[in-house]
Structure formats: C-alpha cells, structure tokens
Amino acid sequence: MASFWFRSPDPPPKEERTVPVLALVPAVLVVTVEQLVQWQYGAAGVLGLLLLAIGVGSNRPGISSAGAVLLALLVTRPAL
C-alpha cells in the first residue's frame, strides 16, 4: 500500500517526448522573418513587428495600428 502512494510516475512514451515537425516549422519561419526584418529595417522594424503581433494577439487595435504604421513608415522611407 505504501508503494502505491510513493511510486514515481512512469516516463511519457517516446512519441510524446519528441517535438513534432509541424510545430518546429512555424517556429523556424517566425525566427527567419524576424531576422530578415532586423537585417533590413533594424531595431525599429523588430519593434514594429512586435507591436503588430502583440496587438493582433491581444485584440488591441491601437497597438496593432502603431506597429503597422511603424512598419509602413520604414518600408516607404526611401519613397519620401
């Protein structure tokens, strides 16, 4: 009876310990886009992308609009 209460849990099956490829692909894509924005537009581009992502994720139009405007200004800067 005592061994039932103090028994260590069984380790998860091998299938549950591996990272699915479908979960790894979006993570690689996000990191790649972030690096491209950083390379092309610098820290302001990453800030704009971060504001846009946070605003869309939290359903706050003011934050997402600020990020979108910042990205639009960075993209159209040579045309001004």
UniProtKB/TrEMBL annotation:
Highest taxon in the source lineage = Bacteria
Membrane-spanning segments: 47-75
**Which keywords does the record carry?**
Membrane, Transmembrane, Transmembrane helix
- What is this protein identified as? Serine/threonine-protein phosphatase
Give the source species: Streptomyces heliomycini
